[in-house]
């Protein structure tokens, strides 16, 4: 138990107690009620214990003479894509069944963040009469607007909410499914005009959501950051149907970073290979199945959060329907990477500010062009930090006490 408030000890039987977290390289003592809990970023360190358990299975040794060249495979459209990574990506999608890979080109990127920019570049004609409109349905991933506006490109222009977009002409709709921040399954919204759609499927993996069919959209973006938790390796990939679009995306990355780190690609290939191998033992008692492990962990956190939230009417969480997951072979529920929490108390207008007053950092609804009564809470942080969050949330609900 970590928290003592309003003169009484909050008894919440969580394992955390000696809470330490590493943020920005410095260790923060979480055992104190003064400590700040940072649940703003979606830094996916939750799966670290699994990777520790894998030990040397995932170790990659790269001798000094290896991987010197810029080139990885000159016969591939994406000439800097390591053949091992290409194989591992295709194999994993086949094993999980979350995306069709046959007849798709793979473009590797430095995270899917780079691929979002590559896709915007590739989908705009170089000599269009005016910048192509870029839209996404509210609440949308806060980086889309930043990335679109950052370079003040003449090729495209941020136009905001897809639901209210009514211009004729060329547009690009960014569809995140499951969505960041609210975990909902989404389809394109804009129907008029000449539209291109980029499907960001960063969270379309069995630990976050039931896999109901293999996705087969024109452009699908994935990232190892959210799939396995290896955000630091900075590897994302796009599955692209149309060859000219895949070529233009490759060109963007060539001009931007002359390819993608080979060391990262080889590490990613190894990691993805290990999780594909471990999927073969699904459901057995000795299973090292990553998705099974990760799904249990996410389900446990969601159960704990729902339990605490359900003890009062102050906060509420979205509900997700049970659906048949083809990968798990049973009905499962979504356990999104973020909790999209709503504050129902009339006195609290800005939930992010309220939580900040309680030394809990979240990302407020405004950042997603949504009501400030909402906050996005990362479910992917360290165990001790998550447990302390639950304790503090419980204390807020039981006492209405605002720290500091
Ligand atoms: C929906 C979505 N797309 C893309 C990204 C970027 O991921 P990456 O680490 O691969 O750049 C994120 C990261 O939070 C995300 O939530």
TrEMBL record:
Keywords: Aminotransferase, Pyridoxal phosphate, Transferase
The keyword Transferase is assigned to this record: yes
GO biological-process terms attached to the record: amino acid metabolic process
GO terms assigned for molecular function: carbon-sulfur lyase activity; transaminase activity
Required co-factors: pyridoxal 5'-phosphate
Positions of the Alliinase C-terminal domain: 37-395
Pfam families: Alliinase_C
Keyword Transcription regulation: no
Protein family according to the UniProt entry: Belongs to the alliinase family.
Name used for this protein in its record: Alliinase C-terminal domain-containing protein
Protein's organism: Nyssa sinensis
